[in-house]
Design goal:
There is one protein chain. This protein has a single domain, classed as 3-Layer(aba) Sandwich (Rossmann fold). The N and C termini lie far apart (59 Å). It contains twelve helices and nine strands. Strands 5-4-3-6-7 form a five-stranded parallel sheet, with helices on both faces. A two-stranded antiparallel ribbon has the order 1-2. Strands 8-9 form a two-stranded antiparallel ribbon. Helix 8 crosses helix 11. The chain is globular, with a radius of gyration of 20 Å. By secondary structure, the protein is an alpha/beta fold.
Length: 324
């Protein structure tokens, strides 16, 4: 199998496009899509200057997705001083798992000369995920606790760094899985949130200044191509599943999507194209309700985070763990 671009040995066949690509042309393709997404989502405003640059905080776990995203954006803006990049890693307190990925993150950011900060659940919340799994007073999957805690830290430290954008390494597979889950669950409000979290496809969007806007520049790139990119470029990615991962439902959706993609190449792209239209309609439907909800948001009485309740979800979970 030869590369369509240069005739060298191909390392990948993208069935959805029919392309056969060597390592170099695969990497160029991934980089092109990430940079196109940055442009189409208008992540870099016209008024950004070296004197008043954009500050982007990237959630860097040390896994393949966040490592690839950080590598591409750091190289893209290496000579463009209109963007400052800060990499933020989170230590959940999982023995024998996160330490290796943090080492990978440190190697990457040292190589790229990117500012890197690490924060941990133990220091910030007084809990470790290993202990949460043992106690589990809410009888929830570990990922449910971890997701709440991680989002809180990402948002808090993005705000601390006065970030203009918070970037995460969600790839096409991640996004298509989430889209299907929301459709299967009939979660129209979550679709509307997808619209509100999107910076580019909808130019009429007016994000509030209550939260740091999020962006997902990898969302056009399939997971396999992200992994191949990391391999071809020999990036220090730590590719190991969390020992507490137990998202059985998402796993079923992932397997279903992979099966459909094999039989019907391009289905992930089609899902996301249709889903974003549905998300726009859902956001329009709930816009009036959301504006009323926004007025009801207030600081959490425990930590000051913005919440629709007296106590935010993070503080509620921490209180349950403390009482267990």
């Amino acid at each position: 199998m030869e590369c369509d671009k240069c005739g060298r040995d191909a390392v990948h066949h993208a069935a959805y496009s029919g392309a056969h690509l060597c390592g170099d042309h695969l990497c160029a393709s991934v980089e092109r899509r990430v940079r196109r997404r940055v442009r189409e989502d208008s992540l870099l405003p016209d008024d950004a200057t070296p004197e008043d640059p954009e500050r982007w905080v990237i959630g860097l776990s040390g896994g393949k997705d966040s490592v690839v995203l950080t590598q591409i954006l750091a190289e893209t803006f290496e000579q463009d001083r209109r963007v400052e990049i800060v990499a933020l890693s989170i230590h959940e307190g999982i023995e024998g798992y996160r330490d290796e990925s943090l080492t990978a993150s440190e190697r990457l950011t040292d190589d790229l000369d990117v500012v890197h900060e690490t924060v941990g659940y133990a220091e910030e919340f007084g809990v470790r995920m290993d202990d949460v799994v043992e106690d589990d007073p809410e009888n929830m999957a570990p990922c449910a606790y971890c997701g709440v805690f991680r989002r809180d830290l990402l948002e808090a430290y993005a705000e601390k760094h006065d970030a203009d954008k918070l970037l995460t390494g969600h790839n096409l597979d991640d996004e298509a899985q989430t889209a299907l889950m929301n459709v299967f669950e009939g979660d129209v409000r979550q679709m509307a949130k997808h619209f509100d979290a999107s910076l580019g496809p909808f130019p009429e969007r007016n994000p509030t200044d209550r939260f740091v806007p999020r962006a997902k520049p990898l969302r056009d790139v399939p997971e396999k191509e992200v992994a191949l990119y990391a391999h071809v470029r020999d990036l220090p990615a730590h590719i190991t599943e969390c020992p507490h991962a137990s998202e059985a439902y998402r796993g079923e959706i992932r397997d279903l999507l992979l099966e459909f993609e094999e039989r019907h190449p391009g289905v992930r792209h089609s899902i996301m194209s249709g889903y974003e239209e549905l998300a726009a309609l859902a956001a329009e439907r709930h816009r009036g309700e959301d504006s009323e909800t926004d007025e009801a948001l207030s600081p959490c009485v425990e930590c000051g985070s913005t919440t629709a309740n007296e106590v935010c979800r993070k503080c509620s979970l921490l209180a349950s763990l403390e009482a267990a």
